[in-house]
Every structure is written in C-alpha cells, then in structure tokens.
C-alpha cells in the first residue's frame, strides 16, 4: 500500500503532512511512501532528505494515485478531482463546519479520517494533532506578544538601572494556554493570570477569577 504526501496549496501554509523521520517509521510498518517534489520545502525538508529516508519523489499527478493521501489542509475542488474512488484521505477536515466538502468527498467514494475529530483519549494520544497544533499556537502567541510588547519580559537590575519583569495574562488553561504560560515563564515574566485554574498553578501561573474588561 502506498502513502502519498502532496504539496500543500493553501497560501502561506508552511507545514508538511510528513517528515523524513515519519517516512522512516511508515516504511518500517510496511508501507511505501511517495512525496511530491517540493512538498517539504517550506518546512525546511528538501527532496534529498525525503529520498534518503526512503521516500519516492514524484510529480503532483503521480502522488494523487496513492492508496492513502496525507494532507494538512482539506483538499480543494481541484484536488478532490484528483482523488481516485476508494482512496483514504487523512487530513484536517472539520466535517461539522464543511458539510459541502463532505458531500463532495462522499460522492467520489473517498474514505476520510478527520484528524480534528480524533478523540482526546490515552489510546489515541499519538494521533492527537489538535493538541500538537495548539501547543505550537500557545508558544507562538507569546513570541508574537513579546515582539509587540517592545521591551524585556525578564526583569533586570544593573548599575545602569532597573527593568521590572513583564506581567502576562493568559485567558484559558487548555493546551494552548499552558504552552503560553510555559513560554512566558521561560522568558522571565512576572506572573500569568488565567480565567480557569485547571492545572495552571503547576505550570507556574497565578489563577485570576475575574478578568476586568475595558469600559465595564
């Protein structure tokens, strides 16, 4: 059975559905893997890295002939037309929000595994792509906030003067919120206040029950 990894067509998408390391793991399980040329370029994985891992580098038309298609984003109409009946598609689909997409895939007899619908249970933890993406989003949120903030997060006391540590408020304590707290802690922030406690104290945050709103 061949697994195909096409290049993502969505504008500004830098992710790839597979890496050279995961290609090696799939090969050990007995699958063959075809990767479209350039599929990992924006994720800093060149064709040579995939080839060294054992993947076959193919054209865009060839990759869609695979038995299983791995994608990050749901396919557009042009990509759906390239899917053969009976193909298994593994991707973020958001079926409840995209009923028309589901109808188009069903009309072509496509087997769909929506990565966003994988239950958050221990047996499916290795497939929990949503938590992985939320973790990255929480970290990136602090990086972006630090850029916009314009001064130090960590406090400093020097002969030239004193810089107080920044105070960071994180609303929510899910996967993204906890990742944001961890990232803020690593940058030396003073405290984080959350709307919900749920394990946040262990991450180094102070729980705030009430979040004041401007004008209220």
UniProtKB/TrEMBL annotation:
<feature type="domain" description="Alanine dehydrogenase/pyridine nucleotide transhydrogenase N-terminal">
    <location>
        <begin position="4"/>
        <end position="137"/>
    </location>
</feature>
<dbReference type="InterPro" id="IPR007698">
    <property type="entry name" value="AlaDH/PNT_NAD(H)-bd"/>
</dbReference>
<keyword id="KW-0521">NADP</keyword>
<dbReference type="GO" id="GO:0016491">
    <property type="term" value="F:oxidoreductase activity"/>
</dbReference>
<dbReference type="GO" id="GO:0006740">
    <property type="term" value="P:NADPH regeneration"/>
</dbReference>
<comment type="function">
    <text>The transhydrogenation between NADH and NADP is coupled to respiration and ATP hydrolysis and functions as a proton pump across the membrane.</text>
</comment>
<dbReference type="InterPro" id="IPR007886">
    <property type="entry name" value="AlaDH/PNT_N"/>
</dbReference>
<dbReference type="GO" id="GO:0005886">
    <property type="term" value="C:plasma membrane"/>
</dbReference>
<keyword id="KW-0520">NAD</keyword>
<dbReference type="Pfam" id="PF05222">
    <property type="entry name" value="AlaDh_PNT_N"/>
</dbReference>
<keyword id="KW-1278">Translocase</keyword>
<keyword id="KW-0560">Oxidoreductase</keyword>
<dbReference type="Pfam" id="PF01262">
    <property type="entry name" value="AlaDh_PNT_C"/>
</dbReference>
<keyword id="KW-0547">Nucleotide-binding</keyword>
<dbReference type="GO" id="GO:0050661">
    <property type="term" value="F:NADP binding"/>
</dbReference>
<dbReference type="GO" id="GO:0008750">
    <property type="term" value="F:proton-translocating NAD(P)+ transhydrogenase activity"/>
</dbReference>
<protein>
    <recommendedName>
        <fullName>proton-translocating NAD(P)(+) transhydrogenase</fullName>
        <ecNumber>7.1.1.1</ecNumber>
    </recommendedName>
</protein>
